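QUALITY CONTROL LOG
STEP: pairwise intake check
CHECKER ROLE: data steward
CRITERIA: each record must contain a sequence immediately followed by its structure tokens, with no blank fields

ENTRY 1 OF 2
RESULT FIELD BELOW
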Amino acid sequence: MPIYEYECDHCGDRIEVLQRMGDPPKTECPRCQTRTLRKLVSAAGFRLKGTGWYETDFKTQPKKTKDSQKESQDPAPKEAPAQEPKKETKTTSPSQ
């Protein structure tokens, strides 16, 4: 729903009103109660309702930081040198 901005010609009060596009314009000023309210021409803001509109609805991965962006630009990490396999040693317990 769009958010419209109104100004009262009598008292100069400015208000923002959340209303449907098809609703008639407001005329009565809530501050001075006169019928001198007029809609201003401005960039209309709007409110998105429902799921899928909020930033948190799309967060599936942690936010990237400068450090993580550097890491993603660096070439592939070098592999660690191969280690020799450890020798298995068996211990036997003395039999009774």
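ENTRY 2 OF 2
RESULT FIELD BELOW
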Amino acid sequence: MTLGQKVCKLRELRGYGQEYMGLRLGICQTAYSQLERGVAAISPERLRHLAEILEVEVSQLLDFDYQMVLQPTAPESAALTDKERQYYERTIQQLQQQIRSLMSKSGGGGEFSSSPG
């Protein structure tokens, strides 16, 4: 996969059009299209700017493999570590406490009341 093809796939995954990318780079859509097709070279400075627009590191852009995006993740790789699980459990408990607190405050016609105040 060429660098231009990688840029194209990442752009499509982000939902950006060629016109938007050209605008962000300060070039017209036609010139941008030439970058993706490999007709025009991508300078190191332009590569950094492309990575910034696409919200990836330059190394991620260079190493991008579209096939990896399409491959399903193995169930065992989706498992949380004990530390992650504990963090999420604590966060859920804290959020549940905040919800209970807010609900008890709204019971007396507070800010969560559906009637006009």
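INTAKE CHECK: passed for both entries
DESCRIPTIVE NOTE, ENTRY 2: Residues 82-106 form the longest helix (25 residues).
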